[in-house]
């Protein structure tokens, strides 16, 4: 039997990526696609690369008969998500891809997003959707909040190290180099080709990026104490991928060994041999994460590198991975496509 | 039962693309990988993006036990292919991706490649591997010669029109805009990022490109008379994709109707509505071809556009499509992955 | 003495390019910068790359004291230009960079731009601003209308050939590959990095591009009869540059000789040796045009290639070249900067 | 009077950049160009973007009459430089752009470059060529060793802060995002467009980059004690530019004030307002450096950002700046070209 899937917010990049993945997924089929402003359009007119697929016409959310839906992906903009999801059937399985339900503490949400949370009760139910760390909770969950793409990259790099107490929690610096698709299909000047190509720059520097809320929450949990890392992303002239360097105090060999052990049975997490570094070219379009560790000159200093595709493992691939568990399917189903290179 | 596949020349881009496709192909498995100069290396060290796959170590061609192989892809450099393939078992199914066996006429080969053909007998056996036009011959073939990527793009644009006599054979101009991966993983100055990014230029202009030999052969056959088209490719700062504009004398509506009819049952060929134009962004990483027709101002002038991925439908995807037929598998098996966008 | 320059529409790419050029121009200085919606801002906040220059604050057009201005560049959007320029002092020297005054025939304007011209009287005064072909008229002009960037590329390729009657006027096809900055700093989905990088496609195909109006006007004039060429531009993942291929009926050697002779004294037009082709990498950021001619296989067929930088020679550099003549300065003053490569 | 300039190693990117700059320099003219393997070629055939310039034909170094040369730039590969320069006339003014003479301590050279220095005496004479910090020594020098491009970026960020004792010398981390032209015009697989575009990765991670030798030397000098920073560069899909983030312990406001004060009279160093961050798009093709400071969440933590063009301010522009001083010219002569954007 094939699970019937609805996608809300199907006209954005993460919506398109969900369709791309599900198109090759033997256990899912796209039963409904919603995009309020583009309702009535054919998906092939919004995304010509999906022209060969037999997909439902875009509708408004109201038009969907959710009784025929097994699981709903919400790829809506932030804030919209917390307005829409409370109105969905209470027993509908939902994976949210927005930032709205990632922070368990409503005060933290208000701090980072500048306004009170509008669905505090629903927040209590949300399971944080980084599969590798919350697998069992997700398996039994009705409502999962997918992580941020930067957050995922940092968590894969460091959570096992915080848990094992192998790094100094007070001196962690995360420097990420990120492709532009993470910003979505929005019309902003800094996302234009003419601005970005040959022009790279940091953004949200100085501790202002909202994914810091996720880092604070999850790293503190992993370390068993309050952790506040530094984080600086740089927007690159490239479409897909995040490459993270985590500068830490810790023994490189021990860190490498801890990651190898933590991830040895993980189908999507690949720890490179000691001293090797990952590249975004090696994970593009896939659900894979490549990790590497290098020892620095200064004794006790190491750098942990990680690379993933922000639209796949950082967002829509992760969402399908979670949905697989929630639907009782094999966790890797539909997700083993090899990266596209070159 | 899964077909056991050998890939000769596995360390190039088309070799890697074959592995990428076969990794998700339910009817094939990679049983042997050869790359003479890199024999002994693990594939993950040559192509880190394939690190998650359980692949055989690279060997020399001599080390392969072909009795255990059902079909062999030759992704070797030109000339090497005609030296190697005659030495393979005479009953081994082979799909060649090089240019060596595409031209039926040894004199045409010598003209375009500047040296006599070294395996004239084998050439006689070769079936030209553009599946959509040679489907039945390929189904029964032992040895198939895959087409060039530019050739494929032009043939999909025009063969049905030549066959139907809808265009003037003496005034066809093909202008193609091509990504750099078509040139392979070779160390040439003009393929460096610093030379190519923000720098595009024609190459092999003035009727010098070797794929003209293929155009001459196939267009003449389709038209039932000698045809010599003009062809100018431009190398772009991009990795994958070919976008072709064919400037022709013919009635645009009739051309569009002819393409729609010719391709209506083709799973990989998608004719856009009249007046719409294809983009490489819509076929990247897939086996799809998008075609479009526009009427020009001058009465009786039209332009036929086509876009495909040179490494997939233009090379390795086409090769797998042929292999599917040769092995009695479903033609589309393993090839329905959706394009990667963005 | 230094000419005092005003730039209207200083917050767009052509405005910024004017400032870049004038910053190194010994005979000009920027005296006023207008940008209605950004009035009050410092230029360094609109264009941080100009931060080191001592520039006037952006103002509205009304705030400029034109009595202190020697020449005014109008880099305003189309239509806005024809509303603003009639209100400027009648004796002010003006170079317009918009499309508003390029077409001498108001009916042609209405046909291509879909509305009646609003300043027909002023249109009569406008001199068409392609310096190499209208040098003497420009020297004495008060009001010059700069050409379109695609138009300039095509005219440099073909005007001397039409004038000499060396090509068949009825079968010319122009295929141009253009960088994205020609579309300006406008927020459109197809100009986003995530859409354009690795995704190229034709636009305004089928004889719809507005620069056809300029081709019709100038080619007909050069040929002494009505000429209607075909023209298809393709938008590339690159910022600056236009590469044009003109497919023509004519003798390649004669065409090459005619271009060499026509341009032998031109400081900005460089005809490559017979058979060589130009690249955008060789003219980026400069006022240079590189041209090349290749003979095709078919007797009497040739291709004329041209490359220029759409923002410099195609727009702002051309405008300064015209302004130099109008102000009695040396034509090349401030314009001999070498291209930027890589 | 115009200084007669020789360029050794004129066929590389830094050689071409020297020609580009000198072409607009009123006080210099190119009198000799050497490139051993390309001797006899016209510069326009090696670098078509310089076709409009009247340049001497490439010769071997031996063919140059140095008695007619006022200053010689050596843009030779590392190691070659230390073999060639000792053979030049002893009173010839020389600016070396290689890494050969940057490290004052021969032991440090041997450590980082893996072999003994071959011109130890000449090393003693070399003045370290970062103009802003060694202006007076350079003015009187005969032989100047230009800095590395990464080194320059880091030194501009931090030298005034080390001098003023405003940052903790033991916890500095430099993370740089660098364009590919810094690797030169060399044929390496990782520099191919197909490998680099959409694929970014760190290199020389784990304290292995040779520019660390320069950081150690200059930061220790500035701090008055031994300093060993961390440094990780990431190679980006872009041609020109370095963006550096220096993660430091120090008071952000104090750091910003110190940089503003240190650079207030520097024509090429521009400190952005507190909290603003630089972009490579704003310095491309120019001799400018943009710097910014952001306060981090953790009290006493700050990040210092810097952006420059590796080929201009990081190499050839810096070399001309030094040459201006050595020749008694205005320091900024020929170097005030505005950045190219977009």
From TrEMBL, chains A, B, C, D:
Classification via Gene3D superfamilies: Dihydrodipicolinate Reductase, domain 2, NAD(P)-binding Rossmann-like Domain
Pathway this chain belongs to: Amino-acid biosynthesis; L-arginine biosynthesis; N(2)-acetyl-L-ornithine from L-glutamate: step 3/4
Keyword Cell membrane (UniProt): no
Recorded GO CC terms: cytoplasm
A matching Pfam family: Semialdhyde_dhC_1
Keyword terms, alphabetized: Amino-acid biosynthesis, Arginine biosynthesis, Cytoplasm, NADP, Oxidoreductase
Stretches assigned to the Semialdehyde dehydrogenase NAD-binding domain: 4-141
GO terms (BP aspect): L-arginine biosynthetic process
Active site: 149
Enzyme Commission (EC) number: 1.2.1.38
InterPro entries on file: AGPR, AGPR_dimerisation_dom, AGPR_type-1, NAD(P)-bd_dom_sf, Semialdehyde_DH_NAD-bd
Annotated function: Catalyzes the NADPH-dependent reduction of N-acetyl-5-glutamyl phosphate to yield N-acetyl-L-glutamate 5-semialdehyde.
HAMAP family: ArgC_type1 (MF_00150)
Family, as annotated: Belongs to the NAGSA dehydrogenase family. Type 1 subfamily.
Protein name: N-acetyl-gamma-glutamyl-phosphate reductase
Protein species of origin: Vannielia litorea
Gene name linked to the record: argC
């Amino acid at each position: 039997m094939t699970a019937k899937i609805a996608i809300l917010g199907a006209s954005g990049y993460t919506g398109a990526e969900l369709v791309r993945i599900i198109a090759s997924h033997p256990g899912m089929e796209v039963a409904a696609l919603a995009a309020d402003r583009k309702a009535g359009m054919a998906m092939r007119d919004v995304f010509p690369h999906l022209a060969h697929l037999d997909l439902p016409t875009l509708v408004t959310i109201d038009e969907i008969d959710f009784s025929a839906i097994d699981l709903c992906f919400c790829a809506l903009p932030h804030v919209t998500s917390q307005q829409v999801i409370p109105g969905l059937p209470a027993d509908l399985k939902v994976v949210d891809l927005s930032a709205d339900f990632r922070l368990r503490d409503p005060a933290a949400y208000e701090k980072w997003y500048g306004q009170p949370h509008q669905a505090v009760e629903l927040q209590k139910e949300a399971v944080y959707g980084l599969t590798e760390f919350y697998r069992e909770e997700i398996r039994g969950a009705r409502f999962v909040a997918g992580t941020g793409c930067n957050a995922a990259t940092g968590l894969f790099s460091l959570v096992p190290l915080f848990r094992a107490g192998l790094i100094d929690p007070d001196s962690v610096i995360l420097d990420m180099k990120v492709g532009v698709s993470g910003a979505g299909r929005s019309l902003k000047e800094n996302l234009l080709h003419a601005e970005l190509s040959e022009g790279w720059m940091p953004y949200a520097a100085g501790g202002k990026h909202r994914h810091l809320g996720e880092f604070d929450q999850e790293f503190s949990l992993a370390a068993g104490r309050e952790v506040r890392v530094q984080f600086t992303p740089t927007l690159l002239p490239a479409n897909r991928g995040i490459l993270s360097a985590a500068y830490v105090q810790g023994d490189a060999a021990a860190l490498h060994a801890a990651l190898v052990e933590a991830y040895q049975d993980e189908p999507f997490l690949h720890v490179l041999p000691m001293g090797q570094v990952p590249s975004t070219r090696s994970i593009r379009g896939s659900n894979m994460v490549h990790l590497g560790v290098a020892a620095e000159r200064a004794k006790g200093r190491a750098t942990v590198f990680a690379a993933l595709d922000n639209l796949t493992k950082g967002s829509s691939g992760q969402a399908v991975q979670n949905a697989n568990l929630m639907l009782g399917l094999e966790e890797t189903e539909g997700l083993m496509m090899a990266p596209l290179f070159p």
